[in-house]
Structures are given as C-alpha cells and as structure tokens.
Amino acid sequence: MLNNLFDKVNLLQKGLDASWTRNDVIMNNIANVDTPGFKSSSVSFEEEMKRALASDGQGFTAKVTRPEHYQFASSRAVDIRPSIVQNGSQYRQDGNNVDIDYENVELAKNTIWYDTLIEKVSSEFRKLKTLING
Amino acid sequence: MNISSIGNVFSGAQKAAKANEAKENQNFSNILNDAIDSMEETEAASNAASEALLTGESDDIHTALVASQKAEIAVSYAVQIRNKMIEAYNDIMNMQV
Amino acid sequence: MGFLSSIDISGSALTAQRLRMDVISENIANAETMMTDEGTPYRRKVCVMGERQSFSSLLDGEMGKGVMVTDIIKDDSDFELEYDPDNPLANEDGYVLMPNVDEVEEIIDLMEATRSYEANVTALNATKNMAAKALSIGD
User: Fold this and answer.
1) Does residue C46 register a pLDDT over 70?
2) Mutual orientation of helices A100-133 and B4-24 as an angle, nearest 10°?
3) Of B2, B29, B26, B74, whose CA–CA distance to A4 is shortest?
C-alpha cells in the first residue's frame, strides 16, 4: 500500500530524470557549437507523458471518491523514458546547426523546470511525513 | 490539486485495506507485514543508490535522495503501525471482562 | 560514467576552447615570423574540433560526451607576399614570403572561442545549481 502513496513521487522522478538528461544534451550541444558537421539534439518527454496520462484517464487530478481510486497515477506513465532526437534544422557552412541562443534559453528553462520538480517532490515528502507522523 | 486530495488518498488507502481485509481475510498483522516489506524494499533501493554514489557509477543525485526519503517514510509508517497495534493490544488487555 | 559526468561535458569544451585560444595566440604571435626551422615562414595552425562520442544503452538515442580537439593541422593555403627588397630573404623580385596568418581573422576567431568558452561556463554553472537544488530534497 505504501507504494501507492509514492505514485506521485515516482511520476515526478520521471520528470527529474528527463530534465537531467535534457541538461546533458543541452550541454553537449553547447560544447559542440564549433564542431564541424555536428547536429544538435533535444530530449523528447513531455508529449509522451501527456499522452500516457491522458490515455489512462486519471493522471494527477483524479477524483478520489471510491476506495479503488487511490491509485491515481498510471503505471504506464511511470514507464515513460526520455528519448534523444537529433534536430534537423538548417546548418551553417561547416555543417554545424547549433543555435547557441536557443540552447541558452533551453538551458535556463530546463534549470527552472528541474528546480520546480524538486520543490514538488520535497513538498510531497513533507506531506507524507506529516500524514504518517501526525 | 487541493490539499484534501492527499487526505483522500490516505483514507482511500485505509478503506481499500479494509476492503481487502474483507476480501482476502487480511488481519492487522498482514498490514504490518506489508509495511515491513515496504521498509525492506525502500531500504534496498536506498542502499543501491548509496552504493552507486560510492562507486562513482551514478551521478543521479535526485534518485539517491528520493530513495532515502522513501526509506525514511517507510520506516516511520511501519513504526506507526506497530505502535497502533501495541496500543490496541494494551487496550484490549486492560478491558474488564 | 563517473559522478557528475554531466559536468565533464562542459569541462571538455572548456579544455578544447582553451587549446584553440592557445593555438590562435600562437598564430598571432608568429604573424610576422618569416623563417622557421622548416625553412619556410610560419604556417598558420588550425584546431579541428570533434565530438567525443559515447553510446549510453540506458537511453533511447546517442548521448555525446562533449568535444575535443581531434587534430591541430597546418593551414596549407599560400604564403603571403610582401614587397621588401632590402630584406635578406627577398626573392629576385624583391618579395618576401610571409606567414599565411590574417591577424583580423585570428582575432575574430579568438573572440568566437572566448564566447564559446563563456557559454560553456554558464552551462557548467547551471548544472552545479541543479545538483545543489537536488540536494535540498526532503528539507
């Protein structure tokens, strides 16, 4: 039963994993801004997660009205993994297509996303501790 | 998401435990056993994360910390159940029959 | 993978860009060097950057491991000709062979390398901050 209480945390952790991977990918893009022939990559995750949560009909906002409903996070959403895709955008003369300004923006966004997810996870744990310990 | 929903989760879990109890003839000791299992599970996960950190195999900070938090909560949970059980036992033993 | 191998990615870029800056500085310093041990004027050097590859089976897709200077090659474009008949190295027409270094181009290159270096420092700091934030779980 305890595992069901961790469902939300497990989902949030998937986001954290994806965010960390995204950070690696962005850093690799920035590191290779001058590498001839290099094509930038990005991490795909949110769309898949949206689809998984929608198709399971419950996601985070399930209404808990019956005893069976305490399992509000789908097991399928928790199996989602981030995937790395290469960007086919226009490239420069040396074959490199890294847009440093775009990468910097993505870096900033991703950092904030990670921080927010961490806050949610911490908050979740605080709630669980209060629930159990009173 | 509002605050009451996590409360609903917990009471929902309790109701489900009771429902299961009726269905599978569970008793309080089974609930304690489940709690102990969860404790062992989360402890194992936490240890695995620690080992990965020590051997430099993983740089997954959030996974390691989430694992230790879960382990902490699992221990609290098992201890609470044990305490309630002992309380209930004492209450029964002290009944004037 | 070592601990915080993520930071190694940016670290590799810092190393590579710094080496590139060193090479550019050498070019600029030798822009007027008419004679080297090889019997020719100084020949411009160029850093070739290449991606450090690593395939992680844990992810769908390949994960790069940063960048490195794969080679420092000599630019084989023609030497410059400078009219200087009094120079002992001048040929019969009075021209001296000069290094194939264009100082303006080198300075622009240096500025680019510096900007790339700074971008990687920013990325590295972002990772550090994320890690620090992760450590606050459960507080």
Assistant:
1) yes
2) 60
3) B74
Note down the domain range covering B87. 27-93
Amino acid at C39: G
Q: What is the ipTM of this complex?
A: 0.84
> Domain of A28?
2-133
Check B59 against C4: CB less than 8 A apart. yes
Q: Which amino acid is at C114?
A: T
> pLDDT at position A72, please?
47
* Residue B6 is assigned to a structural domain of this protein: no
Q: Please indicate whether, in this complex, the C-beta atoms of C137 and B66 are within 8 angstroms of each other.
A: yes
Number of structural domains (chain A) is 1
Give the chain C residue nearest A127 (alpha carbons): C138
pLDDT at res. A61:
54
What is the Cα–Cα distance from C68 to C128, expressed in whole angstroms? 22
Q: Cβ distance A102 to A62 under 8 Å? A: no
Report how far apart, in Å, the C-alpha atoms of C68 and of each of C74, C93, C106, C113 are.
18, 44, 20, 13
CB pairs under 8 A between A and B: 73
Q: What is the pTM of this model?
A: 0.80
The alpha-carbon gap from B11 to the nearest alpha carbon of chain A, in Å, equals 8
Block residue for tokens 């990772």: C127
C62 with A84: Cβ contact below 8 A: yes
Sign of CA dihedral C74, C79, C80, C83: positive
Spatial contact of C18 and C69, defined as CB atoms under 8 Å apart: no
Split at pLDDT 50, 70, 90, the class of B16 is: low
Summarize pLDDT for A62-108 with one digit per residue, the tens: 444 554 544 444 447 778 888 888 888 888 888 999 999 999 999 99
The B residues from 36 to 55 touching C (CB cutoff 8 Å) are 53
B:C CB pairs within 8 Å: 27
Q: Can you tell me the mean pLDDT for B54-61?
A: 82
Residue indicated by tokens 């001058």: A34
Instruction: Classify strands C95-98 and C80-83 as parallel, antiparallel or unpaired.
Output: antiparallel
CA B71 centroid distance within chain: 9
How many domains in chain B? 1
Contact flag C123-A31 (C-beta cutoff 8 Å): yes
- Determine whether the interchain pair C131/B61 forms a contact, defined as Cβ–Cβ distance below 8 Å: yes
A-chain CB neighbours of C123 within 8 Å are: 26-27, 30-31, 107
